[in-house]
Structures are given as structure tokens and as C-alpha cells.
Amino acid sequence: MNQKSKMFVELSLDTPTFNKRFEIVERKGLGHPDTICDLVVEEIEVSLSQLYLQKTGTVQHHNMDKALLVAGQSENRFGGGRITKPLKLVVGDRATFGQNLPKEQIEDIVTRTANSWFEKHLRYLKEEHIQYQLEIGQASPELRSIFGRPEEIGANDTSALVGYAPLTDTEDAVLQTERYLNSKEFKSEFNESGEDIKVMGFRNGKSLEITIAMAFVDMHVSSEQKYFERKDEMIQATSEFHKKLGKFPDPKIILNNLDKKNRGLGGLYLTVLGTSADSSDSGQVGRGNRANQLISLSRPSGSEAIAGKNAVSHIGKIYNMLCFKMADEIYRQVPDLDEVFIWMYSAIGQPMNQPKAIVVQPVTKKESIQVPQINNIIEENLSKIDDFCKYLMSGRALVA
Fold first, then answer.
1. Is 184 inside a domain boundary?
2. Could you give the number of structural domains in the chain?
3. Is the pLDDT at 145 greater than 70, yes or no?
4. For the whole model, what pTM was predicted?
5. HSE, side-chain direction, 13 A CA sphere, residue 161
6. How confident is the model at residue 142 (pLDDT cuts 50, 70, 90)?
7. To which H or E segment does residue 26 belong?
């Protein structure tokens, strides 16, 4: 272990999460307004990093982790409604720009990247349905200087992050449920299904209840009767999926709990664009899924959202993702562990490969474990942190 970093191993005899009686897990799907904000600013950050590399030879200071998706307005009709007021995406924070890279070019990258994301991921949202408000300011000289120092780039924030492994069966079931409902397979069978899907799982002992909110696309719904017929078929398809998945072969599945028959449009979850952002629900960065693509209420959570943060110097992203990676490696490689939690803490200006503290909390029934093996795993990851940052900058880390 690097002498300037301190690692602590604290054995825990706590009941592992999967053996506790209750567990609550949430996942916000691709078209949820919060997830839209996260994924759009993440793609913007990747585009800006590539632009800086192309224009200046190195990544400059920037963060695009502030975004608000303001819901539009719509009129729903059976067979197809219309958007009466566009959605608005407010994107801001700080970037580095100057004579060779004017602010206008930065703003152009932001809007083009966002439009490309919407076109790729939301089937019914077109360019005319979204407006942009850009609030991008010049990065401060002090933070810009972090990137110009001869020594290694330092952290540009003071943060504490956490990761853990492995996923529980409940977490995996919730994750796989949303991915199935937003899969090409499901959409081809149920074109009424929009991308805005939220899945909440509640485990009580060995039984699982799954509550799903799914936006229906009104152009594919001809009547109230047809809505409820297709809804029942979707529930049945999801039940069959879980039988094949095998984690919880017979979960209780609830879909669109607010629905009421014989109320017409007022009793149905209908949208024009397949997302509630077209009329009823706004979104914001940091309110969505965590670094492992879930919101696990039974697990610890760090102090940062990761989306849109600089992949070269912002430990709010780098350490957050790295904690999950190292926890997974320790769980898989060190014997006799039920689960692993890893905390990383560092201060602004500290070299990226020298966090001020790393705390490893293995949950085990054993009185001792292979601490040198844990130390080696962490040391290897810290020694390759530049490669890990390049991986984050590739855009492959935060995906739907």
C-alpha cells in the first residue's frame, strides 16, 4: 500500500444483507426523468473530454453534473395525443474555454450530444420536443491549475465514497426486471410500453413484491379496455420472465398501481412520448440510480452523484466506481466472505492514487481473513488508476 494512503480492515459480524428479513431496492429505468438527466450529462462529459483531448492534447477541467429536466405539457388521446409545450433541459456547471476552444463550441457539443442521446434512446421524442437552457461558466483558475501541474493530477474535490459486493438476489431481480421491460424483445411484443419505467422491489423473507410504474404510449392504445388487456398481458410476461430467471420464481407483480377502471383517460398512465417528462414529472441529476445502477435502501451510500463528473480528477466519480470494482474483486478472490464494503476518503489536491484513507469492511463468520490479499488488490487498482480513468472516459461505465 502506498505509504501516503492508509488502509484499514475492520471485520464485521453483521448479518449480511441477503440474510436480513427485509430488503428494499429501486431502479429507475432508461426513460425516467432522473435517469435521462444522469445519462445525458454523462454522455456530454465523455464528448467534452474527447474534445479537449483533440483540441488541447489533454483533458481540461470541467464538470457537467448539474442538470434539470423540466417537464413539458401534453394532451393524451386514445390513438395518439400531442405535445403542447416542449420539455426543457437545463444543463450547467463549469468548463474550460478560451481562444482555441470558444464557449460556443462547448455549447454546441452539449446540445448535439444531448440530441443524439434522445434520438438513440427514446423512440418517440423528436428534436422539436426538447429545448435547452445552457448555464455553463468558466472554470475557476485554481481548479484549472490542477490540470497544469507537473506532478500527477490531484483530486478536485473532498469526498467520501462507498461500494459493495456482491449484489443480492433482490437487487439482481430488480435490475433484470427493468432491463427486460426495456429490452427490444419486450418492446417488440408490447409497443405500448414506453421507456419510462421504475421498479421497486420489497423482499420480506423469501417472498418478493415488485411494483412497476410504466408509461404507456397513447398512440398504441385504442381504448380503456385495450389498455387493461395489454396491462394484464405485460404482468403475465413479466411473471414468466421471473420463472426463467429463477431468483424469485413467483413474485407478486403490481403494474401502474394508480390505474382505475371506468375513469377513461383519467384512470390510465398514458404519455405521448413514453416518458412522464412529457407532462407530469421533472428530473434532476443525482436523484437516480447509484454507481451500480440501483438504489438499494438497505446499503450505505456515498456523498456524490457520479453522472457528468470529470473522469480524470473528480473522485466523486472515480472513487465511487472504483469502490464497487475493488469490492467485487475482493469478494471474488478472498475466501470466506459473505459481502464486502469499501469506503474511500480523500481531500482536494491529494494525488488521485493516494487517497487519504481506505476502509475495507468484510462481513464474515471467520475470526481472521487474508488481509495481505486485500492489500494487494487495492494496491494494484491504485497503481492502475490512470487506466481506470481512461475506461470511465470511454463512456462504457455508466450505462442504462
1. yes
2. 1
3. no
4. 0.94
5. 29
6. low
7. strand 22-28
